[in-house]
Automatic annotation (TrEMBL):
One Gene Ontology term of the molecular function aspect: glycosyltransferase activity
EC number: 2.4.2.-
Compartments it resides in: Golgi apparatus membrane
Ranges where the Nucleotide-diphospho-sugar transferase domain occurs: 124-323
Name the record gives this protein: Glycosyltransferase
Transmembrane segments: 29-47
Organism expressing this protein natively: Oryza glumipatula
Length: 375
């Protein structure tokens, strides 16, 4: 999302906002050519993202048309998992998982570990639902977590297509997520959506704005939570379930048709000032990068941080390495006596550093716009 979005992430890169559709299409095309040409490098979030892996044959098949099995329909399964995981005020935590991130020792393990070693975060695992985007991820989820939900593909999705299809499918999956989250809101559940490459060190709930219906983390925070020119990163968002937020998600989802080829986050940037959104009365708030931090931008104070996102990072291995370092930093912080804690700060980015990126990944990490894709 925004300037520093990971490729293929929960939100598109905002870097291109304002650029023409052609540039965007070229960007997407370049990205996928690269992903196809360099499959082993796993450079792109597309290649490692829910969207990317969703395209594999192991993706969960949609139930046959006309399936009305009342017990196992997607709707019934969703209802059950939401009920089981919700807090008393119908709030859940949602993340999406694909097979690469679900592998042992990969992103999901670091993610879960952070809840266990964080300050007042372990109990939040009881309210976390992992939304699997393929069968492998779902199987792993069932082994390691209580609340798993397998999101199926929509009917008519053609898995036999080729390159164009990949581009299509990639965006389709991102939009499927927005559609899904809107559905959760419409069912009366508020949520925190978190990408899995975010470590949780403190319970974010007490640090959310009490008057915000839609609160979203930022790649870059201007300092003003109400400032619509903040660069949102959809990897972390709190959304209160109201009729207005449900309508807002419907509007956002529908807006993809007016902006073909764009990621959800790009489109969010394009619609956030729309008169319709203002009329809905959704109170939009942006979250400070001091508390909801990321590699793109973060404070130095581990006494205040709630979450840390491995955004601004290209490549799954690098990401996992830096996420591991974040856990180490936190452990070091917790093991330090109170009076000395101010001396402990982040040792990241290390592998995710942009300098390294330029040197060792070079042009392969650059898009048609010349900007690294680094959500
Ligand atoms: C929902 O409940 C949790 C757990 O008690 C609490 O921390 C959170 O602030 C509540 N959310 C709202 C919007 O009241
Ligand atoms: C870090 O945050 C804590 C808690 O908000 C605060 O008490 C402390 O003064 C901060 N340290 C620095 C160096 O700003
Ligand atoms: C990350 O950096 C460390 C230290 O520079 C290095 O040993 C390791 O191989 C790097 N990992 C990746 C995936 O580049």
């Amino acid at each position: 999302m925004a300037t520093a979005d990971e490729v293929g992430g929960g939100g598109g890169g905002g870097a291109g906002v304002g650029a023409g559709d052609q540039v965007r299409r070229a960007k997407t095309a370049a990205l996928f050519l690269a992903a196809v040409a360099l499959p082993c490098l796993v450079l792109y979030r597309a290649a490692v993202s829910p969207a990317g892996l969703f395209l594999r044959p192991a993706a969960l098949p949609a139930p046959p048309r006309g399936d009305v099995d009342p017990v196992n329909s997607e709707e019934a399964r969703l209802e059950r998992v939401l009920r089981a995981a919700a807090m008393a005020n119908n709030t859940v935590i949602l993340t999406t998982l694909n097979s690469a991130w679900a592998e042992p020792g990969s992103v999901v393990d670091v993610f879960l570990e952070s809840f266990r070693i964080g300050d007042d975060t372990r109990w939040l695992l009881d309210h976390l639902i992992m939304v699997s985007l393929d069968l492998t991820a779902h199987r792993r989820c069932l082994q390691i977590h209580r609340h798993c939900f397998a999101l199926t593909t929509d009917d008519g999705f053609d898995f036999s297509g080729e390159k164009n299809f990949m581009t299509d499918g990639y965006l389709k999956m991102m939009w499927r997520r927005i559609d899904f989250l809107g559905h959760v809101l419409a069912k009366g559940y508020s949520f925190i959506f978190t990408d899995t490459d975010i470590v949780w060190f403190r319970n974010p709930l007490p640090h959310l704005h009490h008057d915000g219906d839609f609160q979203i983390a930022c790649d870059h925070f201007t300092g003003d939570p109400d400032d619509l020119s903040n660069s949102p990163n959809g990897g972390f968002a709190y959304v209160r379930s109201t009729s207005a937020t449900a309508a807002f998600y419907r509007y956002w989802y529908a807006a993809r048709e007016r902006h073909p080829g764009l990621h959800d986050q790009d489109v969010l940037n394009l619609i956030k000032r729309d008169a319709y959104v203002a009329r809905l009365g959704v109170r939009i708030r942006f979250l400070s990068t001091d508390l909801f931090a990321g590699l793109c931008e973060h404070g130095r104070n581990l006494s205040t941080v709630c979450t840390m996102h491995a955004n601004c990072c290209v490549g799954l291995r690098r990401k996992v390495d830096d996420l591991g370092l974040m856990l180490q930093d936190w452990r070091r912080f917790m093991a330090t006596p109170g009076s000395d804690r101010h001396s402990v700060t982040w040792s990241v980015p290390r592998n995710c550093s942009m300098k390294k990126l330029g040197r060792s990944v070079g042009a392969n990490a650059l898009t048609a716009t010349g900007k690294p894709q680094i959500r």
